[in-house]
Design goal:
35% helix; 486 residues; 10-stranded mixed beta sheet; Type 1 dockerin domain; TIM Barrel
């Protein structure tokens, strides 16, 4: 993908959520939890916690992962309930305690959360200019049309607990190689059946910009957006009908994340433009449904704009009503003048307060297209840092703490208060989180093991620090081998 488009896209990123939490986890022993969450103890992923799970843990005792792409022989990642890259006696004891509690009816069985990572397919050159390299495949670069690489990616994503791939989608008129790369690489992986697919619509690359914003009074904008929705529907049809991948559905509809939708609307006081925006999105949804069979489930990049105050201005509300859910792409504002932030308690408190404000602001807003409540999908991205812009840095311990803090608020407060009774249904099959980029180091954060992730301070686990922290919180991806069932 041309560097100019990467630059244009990256600098449109307004910001997002960040990190903090418990604090006990470092590179050595964490204090054992009183009781594992049910999905962490469910080592075989069958929904029951019993002797079969304990046997998996016992078989893997005293094995370690190592920090190569594929783990050491004998290591069974399912038994690594603490996300340390090793299975010790404490791991076995924790599973044994969960099995005992389950038999006694003392273990609350809850659905495993759904985790979504952005997956990019624009790598066409093995060697990229210094400081413009994105992800290195540990020892070297890779091509996005290589199915063997995508197969190994899938193995790692399932091990580290990533459920859904939000595959970056750019129309051929802008980047002709993206869709062929997806076909030849992502869709050709031998273990594709273990993955769920959503799309990440790169609309700030796909659509014309005016002063860094998308002007819906421009007839070309509407025409292109509608055409792109038709083409995305075709990609979903391929994923559903031609390949063994599974389409990620919410409310029975394929999920599209829209990067940078907060750039929609050139003039915030022009009601005509926002009415035009709503009309265009309505037509785009209907055209998508004509091809796929159902309308899409749209997730707008609106969390930070709607969280700016508990009473957001009318133009932000109007834009937000085009979506079924909201998210934020990243965990820190990308501003040249910004000072570097350390992921600490104060920073985490700021990110949590943003979620609290967003929850209050969005409570009464309904999608204009479905009439339903608008769901918040929190970002758990590990930071934003890139060459010359070291905005945020964090250790594995701080990131693990942040995951605990934000997910606790989301599951114990927000979902309970605003989605009571909905978790476990088609609307919210389980708590849902975006975890940032899988393989885009240029964006400053990637889950994929990287020994030079600029947001990662004090690497201690061979570049697996972010991934194993996610593994600690969510366990391995059970949904690789069983369906997400509402």
């Amino acid at each position: 993908m041309p560097a100019r488009n990467l630059d244009r896209r990256s600098f449109l990123c307004a910001g997002a959520t960040a990190m903090v939490g418990l604090g006990a986890f470092g590179t050595g022993r964490a204090q054992e939890p009183e009781l594992l969450r049910s999905y962490l103890a469910d080592l075989d992923g069958d929904g029951a916690i019993n002797a079969a799970d304990l046997e998996i843990a016992r078989q893997a005792t005293l094995t370690g992962r190592g920090y190569r792409i594929m783990p050491n022989a004998g290591y069974d990642f399912r038994a690594d309930v603490f996300g340390r890259g090793e299975v010790d006696q404490a791991s076995v004891d924790a599973v044994a305690a969960a099995v005992t509690a389950s038999a006694a009816g003392d273990l609350w069985v809850e659905p495993r959360p759904i985790t979504i990572a952005w997956h990019y397919s624009w790598y066409d050159l093995l060697k990229r200019p210094l400081l413009e390299q994105t992800v290195r495949y540990l020892g070297g670069d890779y091509l996005s049309n290589n199915p063997a690489i995508e197969t190994e990616f899938n193995e790692l994503k399932n091990e580290l607990g990533v459920t859904v791939d939000a595959v970056s989608w750019i129309p051929p008129r802008v980047t002709p190689t993206i869709l062929p790369n997806i076909d030849e690489g992502y869709f050709s992986a031998t273990n594709l059946a273990t993955r769920y697919l959503a799309l990440l619509y790169e609309n700030t690359i796909a659509l014309p910009l005016t002063g860094g914003r998308i002007d819906f009074r421009d007839g070309q904008v509407g025409q292109l957006l509608i055409a792109d929705f038709v083409a995305m529907a075709e990609t979903f049809v391929d994923a559903r009908d031609r390949y063994p991948s599974r389409v990620f559905l919410l409310d029975g509809r394929p999920v599209i994340f829209i990067f940078g939708s907060h750039s929609w609307g050139l003039n915030s006081t022009d009601k005509f433009e926002f009415d035009r925006m709503a009309d265009v999105v309505g037509v785009a949804r209907d055209e998508f449904a004509r091809v796929y069979g159902t309308q899409p489930y749209l997730v707008g990049d609106e969390l930070l704009s709607i969280a700016s105050t508990t009473s957001p201005p009318s133009h932000r509300v109007s834009r937000t009503r085009n979506f079924d859910a909201v998210f934020s792409y990243h965990a820190a504002n990308l501003k040249v003048e910004a000072e570097a932030f350390e992921m600490n308690e104060a920073y985490a408190a700021l990110q949590r307060s943003r979620l609290v404000r967003a929850a209050k602001a969005i409570r009464s807003i309904r999608s204009r297209h479905s009439g339903s409540r608008i769901l918040i999908i929190p970002s758990l991205a590990g930071g934003f840092a890139k060459h010359a812009l070291p905005i945020l840095s964090a250790s594995r311990a701080a990131y693990a703490d942040y995951l605990s803090l934000l997910t606790r608020y989301h599951e114990e407060s927000y979902l309970v208060e605003q989605w009571a009774g909905a978790v476990g249904t088609a609307a919210v099959p389980a708590p849902i989180y975006s975890v940032g980029s899988w393989n885009e180091e240029f964006e400053g954060h990637c889950v994929f093991p990287s020994s030079f992730n600029l947001a990662l301070a004090g690497e201690v686990q061979g570049g697996f620090d972010w991934g194993l922290a996610l593994r600690q919180r969510f366990g391995w991806n059970h949904y690789a081998f069983r369906d997400i069932v509402a």
